Amino acid sequence: MKRDNKLWLTHLRSEGAVQHQALSDLRSALIYNLRGAVWNGALVDDAFIEDAVQDSIIRILNRLKQFEGRSQFLTWATSISIRVAISELRRRRWKDISLDELISDVSLVPEKAVDTSPEPNILREREAIIGIMYSLIQNSLTEKQRSALLAELKEMPQDEIARHIGSNRNAIYKLTHDARKRLKKGLEDVGYKMTDIQTIFAN
Amino acid sequence: MSLSKKEIDGLLQLISLTKNEEINCEQCLSSVSEFAELELMGRSPSDALKAVEHHLSICTECHEEYSLLKNAIRKMNG
What span, in angstroms and rounded, lies between the C-alpha atoms of A34 and A78? Predict the structure, then answer.
């Protein structure tokens, strides 16, 4: 059955056979879409897709009020199922990696000769900026901000950082956003504009 | 071990993109379907969706999910 957004909402909110059919159609559509989006044969099999779709449907039903009809209903529902599936894949990929171990060997001591290719004056500017940035990371950020930011630079997903810190993805985003704002302000306070920095680090 | 050149460049890029007000991952998720459909239609994002575009330039995870969503939409539209 072809449904527009309004009909999807009406049928999913109804009861009995109508709702049952809508849920069955949603499930089929999400299995098809998710398989197309994340299938890789190795980590993702039919059982994984089934589980992810089941979790997704629960979340979608809990969020129906938030759907404002600004996209196709199935696009919106698919965006939720992709987040559910990818978050689980990231969790599996990172489950044995500890946050502390990941960032414990990061030394925020500036090293000489950041790059051998630029002109000497550019090289000095780069070393100066990196030195200031390291100092700001050490002295201007809270321990949580520093850990989250360094883990993010080491490509640990925010969901995983959150799991280690006992938080959630939105809170980690806010934590690193606040950290970035502090670093930006710190660099600007000593006279570096972002456009200057981009020029100095170009190439 | 100090940060690698790639990590330093990545951090400076993130700092240069930083705005005082940014939406979080949950807010991005609530609008990314609209943003993806508009982009695949070749239309520019509205001012309200500029915040989604900016978030996607900062957040690696949301950007990965957005790329997968675009693939899924293309297949849906067949």
Answer: 7
Q: Is A58 exposed, middle or buried (0-12, 13-18, 19+ CB in 10 A)?
A: exposed
- For chain A, which domains are there? 5-94 (1.10.1740), 100-200 (1.10.10)
Q: Does A180 touch chain B (CB under 8 A)?
A: yes
pLDDT in tens, A1-60: 889 999 999 999 999 999 999 999 999 999 999 998 887 656 688 899 999 999 999 999
Tokens representing A115 are 């790059």
Q: Show which of residues 73-102 on chain A sit within 8 Å of chain B, judged by CB atoms.
A: 74-76, 78-80, 82-83, 86, 90
Of A7-21, A34-48, A88-102, A113-127, the least confident:
A113-127
- Written as six digits, the tokens of A37 are 């989006």
User: What does residue A112 show for φ and ψ, rounded to 5 degrees?
Assistant: -75, 165
Q: With b meaning 16 or more CB within 10 Å and e meaning fewer, what string describes B43-60? A: eebeeebebbebbbebbe
* pLDDT tens string B12-67: 999 999 999 999 999 999 999 999 999 999 999 888 899 999 999 999 999 999 99
To the nearest whole Å, the CA of B71 is away from the closest chain A CA by: 6
Distance in angstroms (rounded) separating the CA atoms of residues A89 and A200: 38
**CA-based nearest residue in chain A for residue B76:** A33
As a whole number, mean pLDDT of residues A171-181 equals 97
| Nearest residue of chain B to residue A185 (CA atoms) | B15
Which of chain B's residues have a Cβ under 8 Å away from the Cβ of A174? 24
CB atoms within 10 A of CB B70: 18
